[in-house]
Structures are given as C-alpha cells and as structure tokens.
Amino acid sequence: MTIELKNIAKSYKTEVIKKLSYKFESNKIYVIKGVSGCGKTTLLNIIGGIDTTFNGEIETDFENTKLLDETSYIFQN
Predict the structure, then answer these.
(1) Three-class SS state of 41
(2) pLDDT, block means (10 residues), the chain with 77 residues
(3) What pLDDT was estimated at residue 65?
(4) What is the dihedral of CA 17, 11, 76, 60, to 10 degrees?
(5) In whole angstroms, how far apart are CA 60 and each of 5, 14, 36, 37, 65?
(6) Which residues pair with 20 in a beta bridge?
(7) Phi, psi of 32 (to 5 degrees)
(8) CA nearest to 56, candidates 22, 9, 12
(9) Which of 32, 29, 30, 23 is nearest to 60 (CA)?
(10) Chain mean position to CA 48
C-alpha cells in the first residue's frame, strides 16, 4: 500500500502546510515530528480523511477499497 501526497496545502488564518509532496511506501515506519503548531495533526487529519478541505491530491495504490475500511486512526485523548 502506497500513499502519495502531491502539493498538499492547508491554511487557517495562516498557511500551515505549504505544497507538501511525499510518498509513504509499504512496510516502512514513518515518524512525523515538529514543534507545536507546525501542522502535524492537520497533516494526519488530511491523510486519515478527517479533513477534506485542503489543496492538492492524495493518491493511493489500494487494490481493494475495503482496505480503507480496515485502516485505523487512534486519537491521543
């Protein structure tokens, strides 16, 4: 399973994510880190489908759309 972000951008009062492009590949572990307010949670909300109001594209190579139903998102609280 691959998730590719293409030119993702998101603004609130200021631009939080600016034209981010990245390819997440199968069988790898990724860490998203940064200072408070840099857009980590916003990025995860976009990838997880919680936030759908952003610019750019997300492409996947899901062979079976049921994989989307089997993907989990765990909140810290």
Answers:
(1) helix
(2) 92 94 91 91 89 92 59 68
(3) 52
(4) -60
(5) 9, 28, 28, 27, 10
(6) 8
(7) -110, 115
(8) 9
(9) 23
(10) 6
Q: Which two tokens stand for residue 57?
A: 């594209």
User: Alpha-carbon distance 26 to 9, whole Å?
Assistant: 24
Q: How many residues does the chain have?
A: 77
Terminal C-alpha separation, the chain: 28
Which pLDDT belongs to residue 68?
A: 54
Asked if residue 40 lies in contact with residue 32, where contact means CB atoms within 8 angstroms, the answer is: yes
| Residue 47, Cβ density class (10 Å: 0-12 exposed, 13-18 middle, ≥19 buried) | middle
Measured CA to CA, the distance from residue 3 to residue 62 in angstroms comes to 9
